[in-house]
Structures
1.
Amino acid sequence: MTTLARAAREVLLAPMPHAKVMAARALARGWRAGRIDWRFDVAMPDRPARGERPVLLAPTHMPRRGRAGSPRARVAMLHALAHIEYVAIDLAVDLVGRFGAEFPRAFADEWLRIVAEEAMHFALVDRRLRALGAAYGDLPAHDGLWEAAADTAHDPLARLAIVPMVLEARGLDVTPAMIARFDAAGDAASARILRRILADEVRHVAAGVRWFESLCVSRRIAPPASWRALVGRHFGGRIKPPFNDSARESAGLTKEFYAVLAPPEPASHKAPATARRT
């Protein structure tokens, strides 16, 4: 019987998308079936394996997506989303493999369900790209998500604060506007995929908030103040609006956490709960 750490490491070291998706699904199935031992006997790699494509660029060097609603822009948005979901597989796996020993088994139960969902999200978007005559890897992508993971590899509280409660929460903010763009372009198939992902991501952010608060209780520290301190240390201390307040509230990420970190919006640029993509 393999261990949870070894199975997680196998996913992280799978360099190609299809192999990573298959390994992630096998990990989640094996855990549910009781074929994986809850032991942490190997270390996680500093970085997950990556193939030659997509080419990874600095966020400031990413090319423009083209005219909003155009086929080129829609493919670019889907490609960016595919990359986010691909890295999200590794983020969820690394969270379990790196920090699982510090939590009860229920932590692995929940985050391995999320691993399977992230793998499913990537597969859905990749399939949609192929239907549009493209594929994951055709365009460049940026590595900012994993940089945040590397910066928080020392502390599960920091990882939970930044990855689900900042980066994934940002997905709650921007996805409604993306859905509206696909709907306006008559691309109902892509819009349906994004609606499915948005519903799942509310639960993923909620899992991050719940385990963050649980760890704060065990350390006898206040969750909102601790989160703000960690955002200041690992994310520059500011998160930018507009916010999807209703989705964040559904996930338990209330304004008590983030309102004081957001710069004030000019009145003419205030947005409703649906947010524009940045």
2.
Amino acid sequence: MGIQELDEILNGGLPIPSALLILGDVGSGKSVLCQQFVYAQAKDGFNCTYFCIDHSPYDIRTNMESLGWNPKDFEDKGLIKFVDLFVGREESDEKYQGNPRDYNELVSAIKRYFIQNQRFVVDSISSIAFLHGETKAYDLIQRIHGWVLKTKGVGIVNAVKGMHSQSFEVAIQQALGNAIILEREVESVYLHVAKTTRTPHQKGKFGLEIDEKGIRILI
């Protein structure tokens, strides 16, 4: 994963290929964790694709820069690609790379860029479920799982805890095989690993903080 404490919790990180679901409360640091993962993987020389759905690429770049990470250096080298599928965009703007409000076009865009990467982030599946329904969002999750196996990649799918039916949240945990839950308790955030496949993991809840260097996990 490239995040030291999380790699320790995951017994050295995720196996290749695999996908990790991060299911977290609003404001629990899901997107920061995704951004830190992509930046760390790009530093290690992997081709990374960040599918920007909840936020525009501009917002994600700006947030990364605020944490001391400069993604432009890696974009220039072709190691990070932000794919603009932001749901808040104007549909008439031709510079965007896919129409998130047309499900088939959305899937085609993700597939087209997905096969070019070694590491990926989908941020997030929740907006897709909200726009197109949980059945189609689950269908996309299954497709992503298949693409991961084909590309031998590793990545993260982000989802907002409590935004969906309980059955959908259980189903996507089962489909992706690896799942981390982030929960807010008053002013604190805790992380625990719900499940992993092909690798053991540490049990229990771990405190999570966001400082000027990104995510820090207290183990």
3.
Amino acid sequence: MTRTFPTGFLWGTASAAHQVEGQNHNNDWWQWEARGGIQTRESSDPACDHYERYAEDFRLLRHMRNNAHRLSVEWSRIEPAPGEFDRAALRHYRDVLGELREQGISPMVTLHHFTSPLWFSRRGGWAKSGSAEAFAAFTRRVADELGDLVGHWVTLNEPNIYALQGWHLGEFPPGHRGDLVGVFRVLANLRAGHLAAYRELKRSTPGVPVGIAHNKFFLEPAAPRRGDQWASRVAQVALDRWPASASRLELVVSAPADFIGLNHYTGQLVAFDPRLPREHFARRFNPPGLPESDFGWTVNPDWMGRALQELRGLGLPIVITENGIATSDDSVRERFLHDILLQVWAAIEDGVDVRGYFHWTLTDNFEWARGYSMRFGLVAVDRVTQERVVKPSGHLYARICQANGLPESAPLPPGATAARA
């Protein structure tokens, strides 16, 4: 007996170009690394050498019975200077998408996954006027050159996290801290960029669904006190301001999408603290008694179910575009997979229109400011030889994908011992 998912459900993994490709030397993250922005002082080159080894990695996807894969194309490769498009880079990505199709895997292509060309950043990036127009020109060329191979488009990855990390928390380039005006300026320009990209994609590939990958980070009151209730509501609205929150529908209707992409990992408790500076106003901390990932993030699969129920109010299909756990103990990842997918199955049974699940990620990779210290992959990668080894969680995921469902008994049996791909 199995808990079966709908026919045609998308089973895949997700990745980002800069985290896996290597050789990306013309974007703001490479410059950020050179300035010491990586806590581990590690380099994104060669990352997983995916730029050269993509066919090998896609054979792993087929081995794991995936029928879809989410990846990004690197803007700084395709448009290395303003208005100049690199034919070799476009041919490369056409080969990449063609290889996925050859393996029977539908590509979900993200156009902006945290990295921007140096020329764009030197102009002020997403904080400056004209950023949406520049992104639209890039989108137009990619759609015209690659659109016939694409199964789904994602215009932007986590605009809320991108703006907060780069202009408030300072962990992403350009590294600003406490610039809330900058956060909302960037969000406004990202929204304009999505609108412009959406128009370009529907012109060039009218039959291909277009969405946004939105990070749903739960912020809950630490206690029933009025201050905590207020602080958590304010913080949640600010984090969900755009593009997706069922409680803020009026902020969504003018940002067209054919599906909602949900990225979900964790959440925190919020306690109002009048001693803090006005721009902070509250302390955030993990709920006691719940397990934590190696990232220090609370792991609570129930939140996935809540996120799906909230988003059903938008009236659009939902695709889980990212979800995973940073852990060096792969047995924890196996249990996590079962518990998360049980929540997804239950939401579908309750009528939520969930169309797919993309696990973050296929290979242990370059995890932004944390370098290679955080392991999210279903496949281990030797940093010296680049040899890939499928973890037991990868074999487990393959069985789930092949069955298009979960066994009735929980937990699922552990995977076989790690096998070489």
4.
Amino acid sequence: MTQGNISSSNRIREKKKVFLAREEKIVRAALELLIGENIDRVTVSKIASKAGIGKGTVYKHFLTKNEILVRIMLDYERRIARRLSEALKEAESGDPGAVSKAYFDSRLERPELDRLVQKLEDRLVDADDIKPQLAEFSRIRRSHEDALGSMITKLIGEGILEDVPPHYHYLSCWALAQGAVELCFNKSWGDREDTPELMGFISSIGVTMGNRGQYHQAGDSTPKLTK
């Protein structure tokens, strides 16, 4: 390769690096605005102003506002997927609670982001201009279930978890995490100074939830009807 070709390749890589950095800046600006404001009030103009760039520059990266919104959703789900993948390796090395811990930590470390992604999902479910991105989002979401399901099946077989259909376990994880997120925004209980510690406590409960013996013990203690 000639010196000219090397210089040209370096310039291309540098331009791509600048382009991707600016794209991340746009996404971060949009995220900050969306967490603090109503989705309808966050316009491309506001995002551009927050990012410190021109509105036209935003459109070099995203053709529509929906593309920015779905990018936030995808980034969030990809982070969860990466953490679950890493946790699966930890579980295979002898830490049976690693996967469920990764799931709870991923969702509860930033409840406001988790809640925003749910709102965006509800809003964009039928958007025609981002169908491929929504399909990718669904694929990643299913991969979470697969990661949890495969480990749950293994732990059931080893006698660590209750022998019930695997989806009982991962839907219970979802329900606990969902309730914890909603708790953060509850008018009666959400305004607490110790919320991060509370989320950590809920996560620790989630890790041991469904362990062998819990379900039947609860069943045995249920009052029985007498004739």
